[in-house]
Amino acid sequence: MYLPDKKSLAAHPVPEWFHDAKLGIFIHWGLYSIPAFAVTEYGDITRTMQRGFEFHFTNNPYAEWYLNSLRITGSPTQAFHHAQYGDCPYMDFAQDFNTSLVHWQPQVWASLFRRAGARYAVLTTKHHDGFLLYPSEHPNPIQPDYHAVRDIPGELKDALSQQGMRFGTYYSGALDWTFTQEAITDVVGLLVNGPASTAYGAYVDAHFRELVRRYQPDVLWNDIGYPPMGHPLAVIADYYNQNPQGVVNDRWSVSGKQMRGLVQWKPVRRLINRMAMKMILQGKSAAGSSHSDFRTPEYQQMAEATPDKWEACQGLGYSFGYNRMDTADTYLSSEALIHLLVEVVSKNGNLLINVGPDGQGQIPPVQQERLLALGAWLEINGEAIYGTRPWLKAEATDPQGIPLRFTRKGDALYAIPLERMPRELVLPGMCLAGPVTAVRLADGAPLQAENTPTGLRLSAAAACDATAPAIRLEPARAVQLTDARGAVP
Ligand code: GLC
Description:
- This protein has helices spanning about 5-10, 15-20, 45-50, 55-60, 65-70, 75-85, 95-100, 105-115, 150-160, 185-190, 200-215, 230-240, 255-260, 265-280, 335-345, 365-380; strands spanning about 25, 120-125, 165-170, 220-225, 245-250, 310-315, 350-355, 395, 405-410, 410-415, 425, 430, 435-440, 445-450, 455-460, 470-475, 480.
- By secondary structure, it is an alpha/beta fold.
- An eight-stranded antiparallel β-sheet has the order 8-9-10-16-13-14-15-11, with helices on one face. A seven-stranded parallel β-sheet has the order 5-4-3-2-1-7-6.
- A hairpin with a 5-residue loop joins strand 8 and strand 9.
- It starts with 5 loop residues before the first helix and ends in an 8-residue tail after the last strand.
- About 45% of the residues are buried.
- The site of alpha-D-glucopyranose has 9 residues, from loops.
């Protein structure tokens, strides 16, 4: 029985299914998928942030932030909106969304995700714009009929379970722009602009309880933080008590009332913004301070294998929500996507890769193509990914400059070159302490393994042109790390 305190919740073990799954699909779908516009020319969020918060929020690469960008005077989104839609309020997209909803086919999504090799999917049930993707018992008190007319989470969950995948819900806890009018233009705004009323706290609590009761999600993914008058620990404890196999992410901290008072003071606000920027530039924004089963670096990865579980999330392009400005260049290439999954898994992460369906519920062909390429790679190399755990070392570089990543499972060690494989590869700082069988999964080619002064050499009869061809070495214990001088232990 879990209790609503951090100590009790900390006893919740990360379930094996989550460790094993490795690949999930994030789905950002909502009203913002209709205008589908964000600035791409300055790169992804890691680049726009480097130009300062004001620049970032004015030129936000996230299309799901459309309403916030629209509220910033002089922003490119404002110009786009006026040219395209005149004075039409954002909230009016709800009618168009619902009209198009007749075309949505959850089975088509589920079958794509399965072919991509995903083991779970996480859907935005409410993003920052406040639109609910299901008819809730707790409708938005400000905007009438501000919800999808179909039960999108329910229908998607069914389609996913028919294909053997698990279902998770994303919910924007701290922010709901139907309750607030002021645009967010800095990090402090991100933390304190959310509605702080008792009514909003109760609204969020009620939605979480409703999501848990109706959809029994295996992932409860809250965003930004929790409203000051809500009860996140009680929500999480009840969730675990109903589904001990469930997991929660790390964005549940409550931005307290004190902080709200303090930042009214301009110098304090400036100081907090400066500190936040420093952390972001040092790549520390991934840290979470609330109770969590896993951390959630966004458009970033952990530099090393961590003892704690994490899940990297990012879009296939620079945005989570569908962005009409994306081009083949702004999307990850299929190869980069495969490399990203390998990188993340070698360091104890899962990859939650995002799709942004358009306003009609279609997943754009380029996104489908990338996912299917990943699925085709996993079809052959999946045993080096699913169910693995980090090895003694996550990465090394072959003397020819080929980056290598490692994973292990049972008695097998997997070495995965992040490039085409020439006839020979050397694993530096490693040696054989006994006989080993080495096989390249892409073509089943046996490899010869031998100790050399530069490391463990793997050689095949021929090079292999496949992307990231994983190599299985068995038994794993026959491969050992040498010390800094290259001596065999
Ligand atoms: C962020 C963004 C958001 C996106 C999310 C995904 O916090 O505000 O648009 O949904 O993270 O990780």
